[in-house]
Amino acid sequence: MTGLLPDHIVLLRINEPIMFSRLLSWVTPSKSATQTPCLPMGQRLYVIGDIHGRLDLLQDLHRQIEVDGLTFTGNKVLVYLGDYVDRGHDSKDVIDELLSHPLSAFEQVFLKGNHEDALLNFLGDYRVARDWFQFGGEATVFSYGVAIPPGMRSDDKLKRIQNDLQAQIPKGHLEFFSSLRTFFEIGDYFCVHAGVHPGRALHQQRDEDLMWIRGEFLHSRKDHGKTIIHGHSITDYPDEQVNRIGIDTGAYYSNRLTCVVLEGIDRRYLKT
Q1: Could you read off the pLDDT of 97-116 as tens digits, one per residue?
Q2: Which of 43, 52, 91, 107 fits a disulfide with 140 by CB distance 3.0 to 4.6 angstroms?
Q3: For residue 53, with 0-12 CB atoms within 10 Å meaning exposed, 13-18 middle and 19 or more buried, which class applies?
Q4: What 8-state DSSP symbol labels residue 236?
Q5: Strand 239-240 relative to strand 244-246: parallel, antiparallel, unpaired?
């Protein structure tokens, strides 16, 4: 299977998160006034990073977002960047929360992360487990009440796990995973899980890159035409660069789930 490699954690350590945006303005070139990314009038965008089975953090951040949105009378869009499952203990409960307790005052958009991609691939091919289990898949299997036999991962054992998981995942969850989008764009922002390939136009991207890309995208300073908002690559605090904003702050181990809030040319953050 292409792309099914263990995630590599990229850490950026900044000691003063309050000064993060100001620090970045010192070390990276600023966009000109005409290039400042902007949302259309009457729109506010909330984007949540990688959740990874942390129901407690998701509920906390949802409460903050609901309160934050009370004073805004325009259209509120809430985008989830994917990686709802794996690593944390509550993958099934996270999906239940998203399906059963939507934030009714918000238009909600759910994107597909590489971990959902791996889960769906495993349901079709048991051999995917040999990679998927190395980067958090076992936690998802356990969360659906499926036992994983000890010992070597023989074909028979993996087929058994696959069959049990197929039987245990609710139909609504399968429909949710199958309906996930790979990108969402609004105003001057383009939201994806992992990033975009610098060598391709935004609307010619491959789904595999949108869900899995890392190094080529992270190291590129190319103007992609829109500011990319992404997760997938972990940093201690939001990673603001001239062409992108990374908001995967390692929730499953750091207890810090991050949401960027955008309105007009303004940008701020909510976090657990």
Answers
A1: 999 999 999 999 999 999 99
A2: 91
A3: buried
A4: S
A5: antiparallel
